């Protein structure tokens, strides 16, 4: 197993309280443990109305709640306002991953994170989204900065969680915790496109709630 050796982290610019947007337990596991090991005061903000269907949303959310409780970290269970998400995604149904629909999706999630942070005394926000190698880190950072800069005292912490062993520790922690392993990004369109890709390759379609990290071994 990879040694869980990490550098000591500090919030930039003298910031003192972090609200961490979390997309799921596998992505936030390493991020949470790295933050915690550095003694940074933080809470988790679970706001992901993009996740479809609700069964998948609940699987991801409940696992994240369990892990946060296990670590004694407050977790804010925000709205599942799917109507708003679909309204904003209108016309982008056939955009590819990492395109403008994803920018909208990150913007929406970070806007709510930033608003909550502003209203509840947090001076920094960040997200576990960037740790996934499937994501465009710069796209996520741009969205995070855009959301935070609406509030004068709020900063988006653009730390690259993938680096310095973060990506491999993410997998180690996911296996250690036997986290649920989602097989698509989250929205109905990513589910559709992943299944189309699988079909073209003659692979079975996604089944929700069956794959857990470490099981394939
Ligand atoms: S592919 Fe992922 S990031 Fe992009 S819109 Fe769908 S859920 Fe959001």
UniProtKB/TrEMBL annotation:
Its EC number is 1.17.99.6. It comes from the Bacteria. It is an enzyme of class 1 (oxidoreductase). Disulfide bonds join 185-187. GO terms for biological process: tRNA queuosine(34) biosynthetic process. Pfam families: QueH. InterPro entries: QueH (IPR003828). The keyword Iron-sulfur applies. Pathway: tRNA modification; tRNA-queuosine biosynthesis. GO terms for molecular function: 4 iron, 4 sulfur cluster binding; epoxyqueuosine reductase activity; metal ion binding. Belongs to the QueH family. Catalyzes the conversion of epoxyqueuosine (oQ) to queuosine (Q), which is a hypermodified base found in the wobble positions of tRNA(Asp), tRNA(Asn), tRNA(His) and tRNA(Tyr). This is Epoxyqueuosine reductase QueH. The lineage of its organism: Bacteria, Pseudomonadati, Pseudomonadota, Gammaproteobacteria, Enterobacterales.
């Amino acid at each position: 197993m990879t040694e869980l050796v990490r550098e000591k982290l500090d919030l930039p610019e003298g910031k003192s309280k972090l609200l961490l947007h979390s997309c799921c337990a596998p992505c936030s596991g390493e991020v949470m443990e790295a933050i915690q090991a550095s003694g940074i005061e933080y809470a988790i903000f679970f706001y992901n109305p993009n996740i479809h269907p609700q069964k998948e949303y609940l699987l991801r959310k409940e696992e994240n709640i369990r892990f946060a409780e296990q670590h004694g970290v407050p977790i804010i269970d925000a709205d599942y306002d799917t109507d708003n998400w679909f309204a904003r995604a209108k016309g982008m149904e056939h955009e590819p991953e990492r395109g403008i629909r994803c920018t909208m999706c990150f913007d929406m999630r970070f806007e709510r994170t930033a608003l909550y942070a502003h209203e509840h005394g947090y001076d920094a926000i960040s997200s576990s989204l960037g740790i996934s190698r499937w994501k465009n880190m710069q796209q996520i950072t741009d969205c995070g900065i855009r959301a935070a800069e609406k509030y004068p005292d709020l900063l988006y912490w653009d730390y690259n969680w993938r680096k310095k062993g973060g990506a491999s520790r993410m997998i180690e922690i996911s296996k250690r915790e036997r986290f649920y392993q989602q097989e698509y990004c989250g929205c109905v369109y990513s589910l559709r496109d992943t299944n189309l890709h699988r079909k073209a390759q003659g692979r079975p379609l996604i089944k929700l709630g069956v794959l857990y990290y470490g099981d394939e071994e």
